[in-house]
Amino acid sequence: MTIHPTAIVDPKAQIADDVEIGAYSIIGPNVSIDSGSWIGPHVVIEGHTRIGKNNRVFQFCSLGAMPQDLKYAGEPTRLEIGDNNTIREFCTFNTGTVQDGGVTRIGNDNWIMAYVHIAHDCQVGSHIILANNATLAGHVHLGDWVFLGGFTSVHQFVIVGEHAMTAFASAVAQDIPAYVTAHGNRAVPSGINAEGMKRRGFTPDQIRRVRNAYKTLYRQGLSYDEAKAAILAEAGEGHAELEPFVRFFGQSARGIIR
What we know:
alpha/beta; UDP N-Acetylglucosamine Acyltransferase, domain 1; Udp N-acetylglucosamine O-acyltransferase, Domain 2; 4 helices; cytoplasm; Acyl-[acyl-carrier-protein]--UDP-N-acetylglucosamine O-acyltransferase; transferase; acyltransferase; EC 2.3.1.129
């Protein structure tokens, strides 16, 4: 370990041998940090927090503080962060609550920019980009490959499906289906994330089927239940690119953006 002499690391913390901890950082007793991770200066990591391998946490972050929930009564809830994440300056991630699963979870290979807030019980997938000042209220779920533009705010209990994307300063009050791009306050749909799909290796036929699914949801005058049934039927024909819709429909409960 390379621990700056001004850092305060509780002797009960579990820190891998090659972890670096910068000046004036504070690491609590119930924290574990796995190998290859770098903790910058002036970082506070507290609570029951587990940080995986090869993460980079920049200065002035607060990870694992108690949830901002009036019902919280000191229960030993958790924050879990996976591997290969970049967490930039002034980010705040809170632990979970017993009213949900008791854990706030961040996956792997995420790029999280400055001033991002991830509230209690959020479930953040992998390969996600959260631009500066994106804010997640409690119990939000983000699927893999989501991109949230700067200053995007997401209401509590909202689900954002895989590969979805929001524009700058979007205010998201209902669920965003997989692949859908959204903008505005309140956020409304504006097509599919075709460029992101191209960058991830989707074929033209796969993109066409996703675009057709979007049209089924938003352009054919169908009720939500009718559109959902049609998309699930096509997904049942073995089109793997439609599986994110299947997963989204299985979780969504708030209604979708319109």
